[in-house]
Design brief:
It contains 6 helices and 13 strands. It is of the alpha/beta class. Strand 12 and strand 13 form a beta hairpin.
């Protein structure tokens, strides 16, 4: 089977999904990595002018940093879950989370003004609001959107029909597969992981760290 996606690195892992007329991009990385993002798209063999849609897994600054740029420069649609809309303007990680979150390590507390550190994302208005179970078939991409709260209220993932899950920040795999260190709601995260265990997933691709197989899904 031909590869159904391409990974590029722009501060985080971003993914390109080819469609019938252009491609979709999952997350953008931070604003300061804009040139790296565009270069990565070109090195992967894509023309940035063919970018049709940016699928945002959640509204943290390291995932939305280049959304406004791609929207304005290349007329790309930006799509995200409705529960993340309120998070994309202030550039504050805490906007779309409980206070305090269920799990926030000390180093994340120091990084809460993430927008200022990574380059605050320019404001933008989403073009598409994504619902759980919605497909990307209008782009010619065999993939489904999954609402997987836990890291934030409106976190989503994208599952392709061939079993690749692009999980955003639900997971983290710099040393071993585990939940992201910042978890807003542990109960919601557990439900999201339990849901994934019942789905036909072959490989999981987090925004931070290496991909891992479905049999390595972490327990909470």
């Amino acid at each position: 089977m031909a590869q159904s996606f391409h990974r590029i690195t722009a501060g985080i892992n971003c993914f390109l999904l080819p469609g019938h007329d252009g491609f979709a991009l999952i997350d953008t990385g931070p604003a300061i990595a804009r040139r790296r993002l565009v270069r990565g798209i070109e090195v992967a063999g894509f023309d940035v002018d063919d970018l049709r849609r940016v699928v945002v897994t959640h509204g943290d600054a390291d995932h939305i940093g280049s959304c406004a740029y791609l929207q304005e420069t290349f007329a790309a649609e930006v799509a995200l879950h409705p529960l993340e809309v309120r998070a994309i303007e202030p550039g504050d990680m805490g906007t779309n989370r409980k206070e305090p979150p269920d799990r926030m390590p000390w180093f994340f507390q120091l990084l809460r003004p993430l927008g200022a550190i990574l380059g605050k994302a320019e404001p933008f208005t989403p073009d598409v609001l994504l619902a759980d179970g919605q497909t990307l078939s209008d782009l010619g991409i065999d993939a489904t959107v999954l609402h997987l709260p836990g890291h934030s209220w409106g976190s989503i993932a994208v599952l392709t029909d061939d079993g690749n899950l692009f999980a955003g920040d639900l997971f983290w795999n710099t040393r071993r597969p585990r939940l992201h260190p910042l978890i807003d709601d542990l109960q919601a995260a557990q439900a999201s992981v339990d849901r994934l265990r019942a789905l036909p997933i072959r490989a999981i691709h987090p925004a931070h760290g290496k991909s891992f197989s479905a049999d390595q899904l972490p327990s909470i």
